[in-house]
Design brief:
The protein is of the alpha+beta class. The chain is about 50% helix and about 20% strand. The radius of gyration is 33 Å and the shape is elongated.
Length: about 750
């Protein structure tokens, strides 16, 4: 697996912990004034230059950054001081708690553009009035009172400059720091117009006519106002993109009904601890993960799993924080609270995914980091070219300003992160949890979909179908010994054996010195006898023989051999039912041009039977965990991208080694921790949803990048006057409007991903 995926998986684990062992530490900050890809590049470069910083990632869509650093060499205060000096007003997000997370705020932009508009409208009337024969008061008439006319324009430009002051403060700070950004372009473009207007003003004071000393104050004013309005609209659009994260966070109720004896009282949900009893009334949102101790009801889990129908809950059932109790009253014992709940884990993973950059985003960031410098060079070349052609200074200035303000690094910077933001949050709402963004790109490109059989293609709930025993030993004896060894295991086959023993009311014995050899066998001592349970492959490798009268079944059963003190004593035949949607999923994946493979530790006949039912020709059976991982590596050596789906502890190595590892929610803890994506519902339709969402996301990103690059490739030459010979020119005001709309279009296009739903593949 590529190093970037390995890093992404570690990043997700680190994001969940925020502070790792030893001296490695992680901190996440909410930032202000992060405007474009140039800002992202500037912040990341500045942070990486700090001694002790190992990595820094900035997310433009969420305006936050995540820093990995050595706490022995660097403190949080030093990081915050640097960010403050750069003008980004950092606010640290609290460890393991995203309630302090803020989102891009458009309120300040709203105030700024309104102030700018107050000055711009009368400024336009004053500046453009004489051109349309608008009668102005005598004291403002340019022919009678040119000085007063110019002074009035300067007075009107002041509220505009005040509203757009951040352009100049941040822009020139970035320029002096060697990392010019979008603010730099605006500051230089409007600053040039202001400087020219000031020189003209001094000439007018000395008697020069307005026709010989043109002003560009309205140009500067309109540009600033247009860009401020554009930023406001962009901020509104970006806020819409974060709605899904907000909704996830708001699923956590602030209050809970705590039951203490005969007394029930409403308390803040954050004071709940494991073991508390809480009461859920109809309409209540669940405040913590827990077990139902009394009552019967149905819960709306749609925001957690994408399941549209209510799920019935009764005594012994597990319920999750954030779900809604629809009818009936439940008494629930709290099991997990705060950051340990499934809801908070989802939120943490969604936020963590935002801070992971897919490979295409890293390439764009590298280009965008130099984009502004490229635009500055183009502006200089534009001015030089028009000067050599004998153009007038006003004409030269207009082209230079147009080039500076039309270039849009924002659209480039937002193209990828805003699509990732919408995709991951929309996926989470539909029960597809992406733990890192890189997986979206790899999942879209994966040609081979490799699946484990048990628990993935099947329900993972096998039942004991038949038993065969050695002479002089009963089925009850064999089953008692086998169930006693498996008593503490959660493996599906173990549960099938234990359940069969319970159905026969067998009394289990104490097992000691338990040992598991992943994917092959388990063993323990029961009444001083060594009892071993293993697969057919393990039995052969151990050199143990099965009595000749024992018939090994041909049907699709999973076999568990039982050995006592080195002697075979029994065979347990377990059968598992194929998921109803498995066949439809295989057809769906094939329609997408993907190859399906089954990698299973089960015996050949069982796997072949499953493959035959599903129409899968590429399958392998009897594989150990290492052999599964080796097979995945062989595909990767052939330049094939592999997505592996599994749910067991013995799948952990394959999940880690695959380009994308996907786990069903029912999977073991280790499988969940090593996966890149989790299907919150045990349904392969959600896997189809993941495949579809990944391709739609990459398609959306490519559309955004095509627009962002295409816009700049076409608009910059247009602003520079490349089409002037055909009478096509672009004045600075229209250039500013085009720039503002370019970012909005990218964000709006990403919003289309919010309509994604789990596909119907039946």
């Amino acid at each position: 697996m590529s190093s970037i995926i390995l890093e992404s998986k570690q990043d997700i684990q680190d994001t969940k912990e925020f502070a790792a062992k030893d001296s490695k530490a992680f901190a996440q900050y909410q930032l202000q004034n992060v405007r474009c890809a140039g800002c992202v590049r500037s912040i990341e470069n500045a942070l990486k230059e700090l001694s002790g910083v190992e990595n820094a990632e900035v997310n433009l869509a969420l305006s936050n950054c995540r820093v990995e650093y050595d706490s022995d060499r660097l403190s949080n205060n030093e990081i915050q001081n640097l960010l403050s000096q750069k003008g980004y007003s950092p606010q640290r997000l609290q460890s393991s708690n995203f309630s302090s997370l803020s989102f891009p705020d458009s309120s300040q932009e709203s105030c700024n553009w309104k102030w700018a508009l107050v000055g711009t409208l009368p400024l336009l009337v004053l500046a453009m009035g004489p051109m349309v024969n608008l009668q102005l008061p005598a004291f403002l008439d340019p022919s009678e009172s040119p000085t007063a006319y110019v002074l009035a324009q300067w007075m009107l430009i002041l509220p505009i400059l005040w509203a757009g002051w951040d352009f100049y403060r941040n822009g020139f700070r970035s320029l002096l720091g060697g990392n010019p950004d979008m603010d730099t372009l605006v500051a230089l473009g409007t600053g040039s117009a202001l400087l020219w207007s000031f020189v003209s003003f001094t000439s007018i004071l000395q008697g020069t006519s307005l026709s010989d000393a043109p002003l560009y104050l309205e140009t500067a004013g309109v540009i600033i106002t247009m860009i401020l309005i554009g930023r406001y609209l962009e901020g509104k659009s970006r806020n819409k993109a974060t709605i899904a994260i907000r909704e996830l966070w708001l699923l956590q109720p602030s209050k809970a009904w705590l039951v203490q004896g005969e007394i029930e009282r409403e308390v803040p949900s954050e004071i709940l601890v494991k073991g508390d009893l809480i009461r859920l009334r109809p309409g209540d949102r669940v405040p913590a993960d827990g077990l139902v101790k009394d009552g019967y009801s149905s819960l709306d889990e749609s925001m957690m799993t994408g399941e549209s129908f209510p799920i019935e809950k009764s005594i012994g059932d597990f319920i999750q924080a954030g779900t809604i109790n629809q009818q009936g009253t439940l008494l629930v014992e709290v099991q997990k609270v705060g950051p340990d709940t499934a809801l908070q884990q989802i939120i943490q993973n969604v936020i963590g995914a935002q801070n992971d950059k897919i490979p295409i985003a890293r390439l764009v960031d590298q280009f965008s980091g130099h984009f502004v410098k490229f635009v500055l060079l183009i502006a200089l070349l534009t001015g030089g070219t028009w000067y050599s052609l004998g153009a007038s200074w006003p004409q030269i200035l207009e082209h230079i300003i147009a080039v500076l303000v039309i270039a849009c690094p924002c659209a480039l910077g937002l193209a990828t992160p805003v699509a990732i933001l919408v995709a991951t949050t929309t996926g989470a709402r539909n029960g597809v949890l992406m733990r890192n963004a890189s997986s979206l790109e790899w999942a879209a490109k994966a040609k081979i979909i490799a699946l484990d059989k048990t628990g993935t293609l099947t329900y993972g709930k096998p039942q004991l179908h038949k038993m065969q025993t050695a002479p002089n030993i009963t089925e009850s004896e064999v089953l008692t010994l086998a169930a006693s060894v498996e008593n503490s295991s959660e493996h599906p086959l173990a549960q099938a054996i234990i359940n069969a023993a319970k159905q026969r009311s067998l009394v289990l014995l104490k097992a000691e010195e338990f040992l598991a050899i992943s994917g092959l066998s388990v063993q323990a001592k029961v009444q001083n006898q060594l009892i071993q349970l293993g697969s057919e492959k393990w039995l052969k490798e151990s050199g143990l023989n099965v009595p000749e009268n024992i018939k090994i079944p041909d049907q699709a059963s999973t076999l568990v051999h039982v050995v006592r003190d080195g002697c075979w004593i029994g065979l347990l035949e377990c059968q598992d039912e194929l998921r109803t949607e498995s066949k439809s999923f295989v057809k769906f994946a094939k329609r997408q041009g993907r190859e399906i493979a089954i990698l299973s530790g089960d015996r050949s006949k069982a796997v072949h039977s499953t493959a035959l039912k599903l129409g899968v020709t590429n399958w392998e059976a009897g594989l150990s965990p290492l052999e599964k991982a080796t097979k995945i590596q062989q595909w990767q050596d052939q330049k094939q991208l592999v997505l592996f789906v599994g749910d067991g502890m013995n799948d952990a190595l394959s999940l880690t080694n695959a380009d994308v590892g996907v786990t069903l929610r029912s999977g073991t803890g280790l499988a969940l921790e090593t996966s890149d994506a989790v299907l919150m519902k045990n349904d392969l339709r959600h896997l189809a949803g993941l495949l579809l969402l990944s391709r739609e996301t990459i398609k959306n990103i490519k559309q955004n990048l095509f627009w962002a690059f295409g816009y700049n490739i076409f608009s910059i030459p247009l602003a520079a006057g490349a089409f002037s010979a055909w009478g096509i020119n672009l004045n600075p005001e229209w250039a500013a409007l085009a720039m503002a709309l370019s970012s909005i279009s990218v964000v709006s296009n990403a919003q289309r991903l919010k309509s994604f739903k789990i596909p119907k593949i039946d």
